[in-house]
Write a structure and sequence with these properties.
single chain; 206 residues; alpha/beta; Rossmann fold; seven-stranded mixed β-sheet; globular
Length: 206
């Protein structure tokens, strides 16, 4: 967190810097292809990943909604990277956005649940934390709790972290724009987005 915060503090483009940190956090997916196996490897890789930059950069689409009041629904991915998501969420809230967090309803792989969010203090970083009510990766648009659907329909944008959320949303026609913030750790996802493997991506659809 300190390493990431120092990078952001030294950046002239705070939003893009916060997004870079959130994307890089997506490598903290222990046990997955393209992720890292040990937390200490993150610091060793940080500078190289920052230097790589964004292979797809739609951050201007996010910037465009930050100067007016409104809500962003933030779809969390795995537990490791969620600690770096805090930095982006704090920035979004500092710009006046209300942030609603979305976590898994029950444990699946290493994805964040409500228990994880409460234990780590992640729930204190958002204005409201809701869960999907389900145990599977991502979200099924036909099986969304009413309170969560109300927030989605009324928000300015969804920020969806990671490949699991991308895969569950990429074929959906959604009521609001979706910003996919991830690293392309597998070929099919990279191909679907239209970038090479192992790229840092901020991709806004809708």
């Amino acid at each position: 967190m300190d390493l990431a915060q120092r990078y952001i503090d030294g950046s002239d483009d705070k939003l893009r810097a916060c997004l870079m940190v959130a994307v890089i956090g997506n490598i903290m997916d222990f046990g997955s292809t393209g992720g890292i196996d040990k937390p200490e490897l993150f610091e060793q890789m940080f500078d190289d990943l920052i230097e790589q930059g964004l292979g797809l950069d739609d951050s201007d689409r996010i910037e465009a909604i930050l100067d007016r009041p409104g809500t962003i629904v933030y779809m969390f991915d795995n537990c490791g990277e969620s600690q770096l998501d805090k930095i982006l969420i704090r920035y979004l809230r500092s710009r006046g956005k209300r942030v609603v967090g979305m976590v898994r309803g029950r444990p699946i792989l290493n994805d964040v649940t409500m228990d994880d969010a409460q234990r780590s203090g992640l729930d204190k970083e958002v204005d409201l934390m809701l869960d999907t009510g389900t145990f599977y990766v991502g979200i099924d648009w036909r099986d969304v709790p009413p309170e969560l659907m109300k927030e989605i329909n009324g928000c300015d944008m969804i920020i969806a972290k990671g490949m699991g959320n991308y895969e569950s949303l990429s074929d959906e026609v959604l009521p609001v724009p979706v910003a996919h913030v991830l690293r392309t750790k597998c070929g099919p996802v990279a191909s679907s987005i239209g970038v090479p493997l192992d790229q840092n991506v901020v991709y806004v659809r809708g």
